Request: fold
Amino acid sequence: MEHQPDSIDQEVAQELGIQTTMTWATTRDGALKQLSNFIENHFAEFGPYEDAMAADNWALHHSLLSPYLNNGLLHASEVIAAALAAFEKGGIPIASCEGFVRQIIGWREYVNGMYWHLGEQYPELNDLQANRPLLPLFSDSSKTQMNCMKLVVGDIHNRAWVHHIPRLMVLSNLALITGTNPQEYLNWMREVFIDASDWVMVPNVIGMGVHADGGQMMTKPYAAGGAYISRMSQYCKGCIYDPKKRTGDDACPFTTLYWDFLDRHRERFAGNHRMAQQIFGLNRLSDLPELKERAREVLDGLDQGVI
Ligand SMILES: Cc1cc2nc3c(=O)[nH]c(=O)nc-3n(C[C@H](O)[C@H](O)[C@H](O)COP(=O)(O)OP(=O)(O)OC[C@H]3O[C@@H](n4cnc5c(N)ncnc54)[C@H](O)[C@@H]3O)c2cc1C
Reply:
């Protein structure tokens, strides 16, 4: 749905020298309309499409409620109440209701608790000693040829939002497997997202996204190769890189760097039983020397903004 900017929005946008947006509301009334729109038109489909990434539908069936939940225009309890009331009326599959309620009282509350529990030093952690400067493609989508990164960074530029899977499995995954400095990446995420409240962003990025906390929040890193992105999205169609390939000029950078990441941290993850399958797969690679060579080229290319 679209939200018409009012005179205050126009005035503020003018002061800041930016365009107003119709994507986001700035009032309680607008936030309530967004909630009703979600319940009436998207809630039933939330579950099946929650983790999918579409190239031609930027919001899918996500609620787009995070900015209002974070800035106080909506309270979590009224969002849950609206969801449960709709479910009780009928027509909402249990998977959609369970999935949505879990996001709010499961993830949101959990992340909030973890933020206060983990302490003031938590945002500064860098357990994997990742020191690569932020890649140019994060601030300029023309600095990459990877379809997924181009589309996701382009979407953020347009609306300051993408859903949880591109945040986790595309953006953070790339930061993780390239060894990008967690604090540089965190600062970029803070700047570009509409819902970037510190208490939500910090645990999601430092803990879940780039595993910079040595596993305090998540027991294993969310590292994945191109096969995952290809399975969960439409991004790979038409991309010049092949998600199935790990070596060669057309190998998907995610696939090459996924194995390179595992190899760089092989000793650390060897003792983690949740990583056993990945390390087993790594040990079976017959082309590791070639792959390491390609990984060096890919990292250089990403640093130069040409991959
Ligand atoms: C690396 C990373 C960074 C993130 N940074 C932020 C952030 O700065 N601010 C923010 O609000 N959310 C953040 N999230 C969580 C999630 O991506 C957004 O809350 C969600 O995409 C917002 O869109 P939505 O309202 O349509 O969510 P929906 O998919 O409709 O989910 C409903 C609500 O559940 C809550 N929720 C879902 N997932 C999470 C989660 N992982 N942590 C906390 N709450 C969650 C949100 O309040 C969201 O509005 C981050 C996730 C990741 C993986």
Summary: Residues 177 and 257 are 6 Å apart (CA to CA).
